[in-house]
Amino acid sequence: MKPSFPRPLFAALALAGICHTAHADTLASESQIRPLTDKIMAQAGAGRTDDAYAAMSPYALIDIRALEAARVNARSTRMAIEAQVGNSVGYEFIRSEKVGDSLLKLTYIEKTEKQAIPWQFIFYKTPAGWAISAFSNGDNVDALFER
């Protein structure tokens, strides 16, 4: 039986275009995306949620207030999640999917002692460069197998 996670932490943050955003830093080339998401996931995989969000936030087109609310919520529910699935023990890159020339999705799992937690990052190529347009993490491991 799959553990039931507190839902507020795992609500998707696919908010690009919905909220007013602050100016995001951008990545000059597509080759810089994977190193950034690896850095974010290294923090998540070590159980350092605040540091993962801090690494992501400069490049997020997501409304900064929504991202900050998600970070605070993630921190507050972290202990409850760890009680159910154990401590974070690392991460694993799953796949990269590109649609056209302007959208790239990277999928990872945060590995815990008892369960994988999917993380997804969608990057959009703005006129200034690549930035995170949407982000989500959750407990729907089955979705990783849908093709």
Count of helix runs: 3
Taking all Cα atoms into account, the compactness measure Rg is 15 Å
Helix content estimate: 25-40%
Low-confidence stretches: 6-22
* Strand elements, count: 4
- Alpha-beta content class: alpha+beta
Order of helices and strands: HHHEEEE
Main beta-sheet annotation: 4 strands, antiparallel
Inertia-based shape: globular
Query: Kindly, what is the distance between the CA atoms of the first and last residues, rounded to a whole number of angstroms?
Result: 23 Å
- What fraction of the residues are assigned to beta strands by DSSP? 25-35%
Average residue-wise pLDDT: 83
Main sheet: strand order: 1-2-3-4
Task: Describe the overall structure.
- The structure is a single chain.
- The protein has helices at 33-45, 49-56, 64-85, and strands at residues 88-99, 103-112, 116-126, 129-137.
- The protein has 147 residues and is an alpha+beta fold.
- Helix 1 runs antiparallel to helix 2.
- It is globular, with a radius of gyration of 15 Å.
- Mean pLDDT is 83; it is low at 6-22.
Keywords, please?
147 residues; alpha+beta; 3 helices; 4 strands; 29% strand; globular
Topology record:
Elements: H1 33-45, H2 49-56, H3 64-85, E1 88-99, E2 103-112, E3 116-126, E4 129-137
Antiparallel strand pairs: 1-2, 2-3, 3-4
Write a short abstract of this structure.
With 147 residues, this protein is an alpha+beta fold.
